[in-house]
Amino acid sequence: MSKTRQSDQQISLDLSNEPDDKPAPSAPTRAHDTDALLASPDKMDALLDQWQQMEWIRPLDVGFARLIRTLSAEQGEALHPLVLLLSALVSHQVGRGHVCIDLANLFADAGSILSLPPEDSVEAAGGLRTGETVCPEPDSILARVSLEDSLALLDKAQAVSDGSLTTPLVLNETRLYLRRFWRYEQRIAEGIQARLAMSSPLQDAHSDMATTLGLALTALFGPPVDIDFQRLACALAARSRFSVITGGPGTGKTTTVVKLLAALQAIAGKSGQRGGRKHRIRLAAPTGKAAARLNESIGGAVSRLPLSQLPGNVTPDDIPTRVTTLHRLLGSRPDTRRFRHNRDNLLLVDILVIDEASMIDMDLMASVFDALPATAQLILLGDKDQLASVDAGAVLGELCQRAADAHYTPETSCWLEAITGHSIPDNLSDASGQPLDQAVAMLRKSHRFSEDSGIRTLAEAVNTDTLDAGILRACRDGEFDDVIWLNGRNPTPEPSNALAMICSHAVSGTPEAFREQGRGRIANHQPLPPPVGYHQYLSLLNNHELDERSPRVDWDSLALQVLEAFSDFQILCALRKGPWGVEGINDLVARHLLAEKHITRAEGWYPGRPVLVTGNDYNLGLMNGDVGITFSVPWDRNQQGEPKDTLRVAFPATDGSDGIRWISPSRLQQLETVYAMTVHKSQGSEFNHTCLVLPDRLSPIMTRELIYTGITRARNWFSLITGDASVLRDSVHQQVRRASGLAQRLSQP
Ligand SMILES: Nc1ncnc2c1ncn2[C@@H]1O[C@H](COP(=O)(O)OP(=O)(O)OP(=O)(O)O)[C@@H](O)[C@H]1O
Hints:
single chain, 5-stranded parallel beta sheet, 749 residues, RecBCD enzyme subunit RecD, exonuclease, alpha/beta, DNA-binding, exodeoxyribonuclease V activity, nuclease, globular
């Protein structure tokens, strides 16, 4: 069966399953013979090979496409070359964080959807030259085919189904998935939809439970005056078995969730149905660092709760303050993606709160839903505008796509008014709001940054794509207390000058560049010390007076001080490679610290080397993202029995105590030096002073989300160093759009 021609540029495709009888080519394609490619699986296979050799796509992508071809052949089907191509491309897209490939978008704009060839390839007119051959690009091939023909071909292919068969590829409307990712999305959507559909006695605003909720909110927030989005978030999240509370830095996500848990325990305490039994609550975060940060803030927030004024006899023990990593909660097992807790071994929990939910990928989120009892309540917290997870998916971002406008139905608005005393503004109401909208709350007021804070102004401008010359000038001229654009007067510096600036900034924090030399600021009712750079932790480490007679507890306390001083300042880079990337800058800073005699060597292990763990090590109890500092300690003895200095790396204990784990460098497997870290790795962390280094060239990974995440890692001071100012502006215009069908699935009844 042949399809008719779609346009002059598009060829008709043979949709039959007849085997390809053309001889296999022995050499790669020599010209733009895209029609020949679309007629021969062997030629397409050779082209995929060529793309792999040029590192456009991964061996995994080619391997997957070939597997599809082999499986099809085993079933007597000669795989159409286009299906072979699309199989490799969907795998390529998953490697880039997408959950699927939307063919409608792909056929409309393959160049920007695929980013092939990668930006750093050497391009030749009309194709890429590799030696003597010219290699067609995916968009030139796809331009020869119509979306309709492609869908028809996929429909006929035995490797593809709508998900009802166990095929390796799943086609849902125009979205093509690897089966595994389609299942993740399905499990997540089912978990959310089932919870949104569960009715709760709280839905009746006149029920006893709803009355208790109203009383609890008054005790926690006081009488309603101006609209308080934290109060609204508490009410909404209490009503549903699934909810999301999103907000920028310091908007009170932790404060709100602690009040929410208190309100839920108050309701449980008063409930006749539960016999006053309180909920079993667990708190988790995707990384050790994020868990530790929530650990730090939650204790204070719980201690400030007016528990005695709540109904239901809520005690401090009813609200947990210990936060675990999601991997620990679910029970990771080495060398497998499977967890100990799953559908057959559910978690013993009534309410699960997950912070920093933007870092959760599809795989992990699906595992969370698998391990949760059907009636357990899930509350996600996070900043929807931050970078999405490293692996495929952007679950939080998708769930919060409509959060800014709320879309509360008249029913939700009436209920919120009855429970909270706040009337919902018209611009947040929508008669056709979807079920998910009714369970998403956005916090809109920052309690950490004042209106005139530079960090807040810059982050908002980046987030809303309104970064203009005025804001940049204010950063350059030190008009903000907390932000400085260090090379603002020379926005396109000589690389050597910029790198020298990074070095001296790393040592001292350059307080003199900030307004009033960084003096005179108040934070949390205390004077805020000026910026200090890495000099601070190295001085503590190099000038202590401990020796072999000192008790271990004194060493622990020194290590804690040094670790805390280290976390005061952090250089963040957009890139990993090259002179502006983490690797180049780590090397540069280490050599500078050596030249200034703050450290004794710049390579290998040495006292003062800060390290970042880059993979989970269950034997050592170290998690990806943990940071340690190397010390020289006199705890071993030489053959004469005299104290001998050896190196140990000090990591903070993970149990929320002030303990230290001292680990020998030889036992550490996956780690890197961390004077600089990528913005991606910094997610879930926060530093007193963050310096963001942007390179002199734009790359596809430099996006609005990356710049926003970099800026919002700063608690009190933010400095910017740009290789070229236009790169900052251009990055803000680039946004990540990860293909997925989750939002669409959830929007369907
Ligand atoms: N309604 C409020 N009124 C006054 N201060 C508040 C309020 N809510 C939160 N805060 C204060 O603002 C600061 C930030 O709050 P919180 O830690 O809850 O925010 P967050 O959104 O969880 O922050 P992060 O960005 O670190 O995740 C805390 O010092 C907290 O005590």
